[in-house]
Write a structure and sequence with these properties.
By secondary structure, the protein is of the alpha/beta class. The chain has helices at 14-25, 49-57, 72-78, 83-92, 127-136, 157-164, and strands spanning 3-6, 30-33, 38-43, 66-68, 97-102, 118-122, 140-144, 170-173, 183-186, 193-196. Helix 1 (14-25) crosses helix 5 (127-136).
């Protein structure tokens, strides 16, 4: 049964997030609110985390998982970023965007795309998500919480409890959040490619 941690959305209680972080350290999956629906997260150094995240969502290994980072500086530790990419990332982060970039050697091979060696990178604009990363002390592996066979993500903690209480170690209830996934932009080619339109408006970054 998942533990439920009800936290203040703007000033989350560090004690509760530390408890959620402890469950992540024990190999658990945790649902957490972001600026674009809830996500499921795990520790990046957890050897089985990628497989369990994919199994929960019904995804194959070609689906990009995402590294949740605290800031722009942390991105360069996990992704290779050139000057044009950096300028776009600086404009967009933090926010409801996921960027596909070439992974560095700091990203475990089991986490990155098997043939392209790429990874999703994101800096959420949500205090609860960022505080959980702080509690763990390192970026987290994540995927948007979209139930198998559905297209819309979950944005209500109580619905997540009803659906996933036996699959998650914890649910961090920070209240309702937006009802859209992130906008996904592939930065691995010369021209950025919008892969999925979600909460982020590509026009705000000069993209169409």
């Amino acid at each position: 049964m998942a533990q439920i941690f009800v936290v203040h959305p703007e000033n989350p209680q560090s004690r509760l997030l530390q408890q959620a972080g402890d469950l992540l350290a024990q190999g658990g999956l945790v649902a957490v609110p972001t600026d674009s629906s809830y996500a499921v997260v795990a520790r990046l150094d957890d050897k089985d985390a990628a497989e369990r995240l994919r199994r929960l969502r019904g995804l194959d290994e070609r689906h990009h998982l995402t590294v949740l980072c605290r800031d722009l500086a942390e991105i360069s530790h996990f992704a290779k970023v050139d000057n044009p990419q950096y300028r776009l990332l600086k404009l967009a982060t933090p926010g409801p965007w996921t960027f596909i970039l070439e992974a560095t050697k700091e990203v475990p091979r089991r986490v990155s795309h098997p043939s392209r060696k790429t990874i999703g990178i994101r800096v959420p604009d949500h205090r609860v998500a960022l505080a959980l990363i702080d509690a763990v002390g390192s970026p987290l592996l994540s995927t948007t919480l979209i139930p198998q066979g559905e297209t819309l993500p979950l944005n209500d903690a109580q619905e997540i409890v009803g659906r996933y209480q036996h699959d998650l170690a914890a649910i961090v209830d920070g209240g309702s959040c937006p009802f859209e996934p992130t906008t996904v932009i592939d930065l691995t080619s010369e021209t950025p490619q919008v892969v999925r339109v979600g909460r982020g408006d590509p026009a705000s970054l000069g993209l169409s």
